[in-house]
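wait is this the right file?? whatever heres the structure
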């Protein structure tokens, strides 16, 4: 009997000890480390002050460490590498991030269940669908900067496959990305696959019919794709568009300037309910850019200038995506509150005080998930210019919303424009 009594006493003691261990582990998991936004803020500041190499040093250990947050740090790390001009390393990082993203889509049920009892940040970060599409788009920019058109086209194909899956299976129309289609069209055109380019321009037009440059793009692409009926249709729809001799002049090349403007919106705690995130726009003085092009030849005057046109707003898509997710987030939080109440009640049945502590710990740990790809720009913009073959000095001036110079400029870069070819250049503003 003594042995039985002793064992019973040990089993009774085991319950409180297990409960204490549960509370302690939950508290440590929720409060023992800084949140994503806190960890990445220094790296963002370094990128914004054009100290990309230092940002790389800050992000590398986070991106290389396995765990539930690895994907989001890899995305930021890839941006830092791109801003440092380390395009090959950036592309490798994005390729690895894409693989992790595919794996994370099959997150274990245990980790999803754990997030009901603690913070959303305890679940694996899988990324939003619009972020997954932009992995390929930003990686394609890297390959364009390395003059690797073939690899850029591979990224476009991967990107188009994702968009097809989102349309046909996920039924999420907001995931359609006009920048992705437009960038794909330009790359197809550069590779002289004119029918593919025309189809991509049409898809972009379906999404952003008010994007003025597309009017010329559609007429030109239809001509090059040898689709006379479509040429007639677009000419009738856009009577202001005139066939330009530059389109068929074999002595000309084209400069394609990809401008990444500002910062995407930042996730913060919703002041009305800290269990949920809120996206707050990051204001920018520089809202567009003007490229200034001059031949390198001694004494040559500026050949021309061209202003960028916004083609995709990360800010608008990110905010819409979060708003669309609110119903599911609320449902999950309600389920989480119920799950916590059950666990706390089970502990109270063995120890009232400990059950009350467990309830407080779980409530304290229930905070919004602030993880996001926060180093994305606010908008993607494009400027294009036909030029005679030769070497050019290309600079860019940042412009405010009123059209005045913002004081944030791109230092002049020398580019080699070849006849019948496209030359790509990218720049990011931060202020």
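ok assuming it is, sequence goes like this
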């Amino acid at each position: 009997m003594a042995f039985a009594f002793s064992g019973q006493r040990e089993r009774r003691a085991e319950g409180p000890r297990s409960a204490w261990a549960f509370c302690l582990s939950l508290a440590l998991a929720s409060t023992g480390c800084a949140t994503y936004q806190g960890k990445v803020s220094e790296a963002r500041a370094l990128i914004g002050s054009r100290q990309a190499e230092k940002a790389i040093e800050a992000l590398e250990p986070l991106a290389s460490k396995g765990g539930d947050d690895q994907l989001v740090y890899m995305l930021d790390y890839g941006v830092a590498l791109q801003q440092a001009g380390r395009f090959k390393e950036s592309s490798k990082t994005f390729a690895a991030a894409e693989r992790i993203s595919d794996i994370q889509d099959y997150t274990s049920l245990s980790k999803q269940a754990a997030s009901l009892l603690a913070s959303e940040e305890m679940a694996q970060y899988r990324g939003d669908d619009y972020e997954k599409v932009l992995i390929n788009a930003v990686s394609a920019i890297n390959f364009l900067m390395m003059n690797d058109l073939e690899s850029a086209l591979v990224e476009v194909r991967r990107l188009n496959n994702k968009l097809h899956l989102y349309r046909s299976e996920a039924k999420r129309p907001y995931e359609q990305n006009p920048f992705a289609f437009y960038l794909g069209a330009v790359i197809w055109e550069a590779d002289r696959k004119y029918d593919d380019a025309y189809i991509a321009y049409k898809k972009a037009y379906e999404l952003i019919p008010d994007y003025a440059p597309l009017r010329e793009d559609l007429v030109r692409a239809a001509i090059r794709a040898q689709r006379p009926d479509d040429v007639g249709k677009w000419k009738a729809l856009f009577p202001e568009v005139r066939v330009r001799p530059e389109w068929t002049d074999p002595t000309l090349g084209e400069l394609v300037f990809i401008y990444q403007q500002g910062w995407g919106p930042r996730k913060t705690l919703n002041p009305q309910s800290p269990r949920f995130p809120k996206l707050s726009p990051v204001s920018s003085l520089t809202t567009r850019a003007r490229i200034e092009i001059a031949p390198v030849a001694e004494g040559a005057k500026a050949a021309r200038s061209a202003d960028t046109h916004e083609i995709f707003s990360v800010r608008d898509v990110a905010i819409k995506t979060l708003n669309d997710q609110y119903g599911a987030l609320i449902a999950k939080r309600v389920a989480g509150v119920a799950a916590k109440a059950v666990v706390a009640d089970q502990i109270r049945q063995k120890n009232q005080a400990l059950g009350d502590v467990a309830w407080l710990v779980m409530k304290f740990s229930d905070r919004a998930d602030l993880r996001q790809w926060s180093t994305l720009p606010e908008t993607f913009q494009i400027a294009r210019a036909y030029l005679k073959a030769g070497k050019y000095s290309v600079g860019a001036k940042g412009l405010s919303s009123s059209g005045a110079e913002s004081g944030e400029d791109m230092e002049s870069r020398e580019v080699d424009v070849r006849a019948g070819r496209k030359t790509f250049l990218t720049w990011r503003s931060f202020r």
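The chain has a mean pLDDT of 83. so i think its the right one actually
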